[in-house]
Amino acid sequence: MKNLVVFSDFDGTITKEDTLNKFLHIYADSKWLEIENRWINNEIGSKECIEEQMKLVSVPEQEKMDKFIESIEIDETFPDFYNYLRKENIAFYIVSDGFDYFISKILKKHGIDDAKIFSNKLEIKDGKFYTYFPNTDVDCKRKSGVCKCKIVDSKRKSNTIVTNRVLYAGDGLSDFCVSDRVDFLFAKGSLLEYCKNTQNDNLFGFNSFNEIKGFIETYK
Question: 4-218, what's its fold?
Answer without folding.
Answer: Rossmann fold (3.40.50)
